[in-house]
């Protein structure tokens, strides 16, 4: 297992400048992100720059899947992961806990209308999602159950914009993308791409998680991280366009294509309008909603588990206390 993880870090990771594997206690906090660096990452990267300004070094590595990122955290090769690893925690029994809710699910199932016209047309067909165990897979599995259909295969392509590009190129005909990628499909494909209905879902897309030992040993540093996440999320909620200014200030993702960089402002405006980035950091009620959603999607076995089996709210409570938000 450790060898597979190491290979994934070498072959599947695209690191920010200066990124490195997790090291010993007292060294920089390493964050494993099971996605590609994109406009969607900017709010996190802004918060991390502010954490560094407060004297806590942080390094981020982008992996090609949430699975590899989770295994890196469990093995100690990374300190913090990003995802919603409810099923992983339940199945593995690993001492991993989520501690900050970054985003809610807001995705758009979309098909090539020249091939499909509705959910029933996907019976016996292939669909493409972000990664195994991701929120995108859970959503598509939920709809498979609701609609009484069975996909022939679920394939994995990380990155909404990558999946949108594959749709535009005709390489896939059914997938699920975020708001920015859906807008791209509309702009470049017109009526060719049809959104399928998806109602009544409110669940976590991404959260920060870590081994419980790390959360205890680095409690002060984790509190600083959570404080800056709370402040950054609240600032963006008040003025989404500030992301453009802060990206330039911190020189973040300088190699973004011009079109993607230009989409940063509109993306965060839409995200705030859709309440994609909640400003409270999470709660036991949210955990219960997540478990109900994942149980309905067939990813966890029970929907009435103790939230503390999956979350540690200590870092969030400590950060809110430091900010006077309790």
Plain-language structure description:
- The protein has 326 residues and is α/β, with parallel strands linked by helices.
- The chain has two domains: 2-105 and 204-323, D-Maltodextrin-Binding Protein, domain 2 (3-Layer(aba) Sandwich), CATH 3.40.190.10; 108-195, D-Maltodextrin-Binding Protein, domain 2, CATH 3.40.190.
- The chain is built from 14 helices and eleven strands.
- It has helices spanning 2-12, 42-53, 66-75, 86-92, 135-147, 160-168, 179-189, 212-217, 219-238, 242-250, 258-262, 264-273, 284-296, 314-323, and strands at 14-15, 29-33, 58-62, 80-83, 96-104, 108-112, 126-129, 153-156, 174-177, 193-195, 204-211.
- The strands form three sheets. It has a six-stranded mixed sheet with strand order 1-3-2-4-11-5, sandwiched between helices.
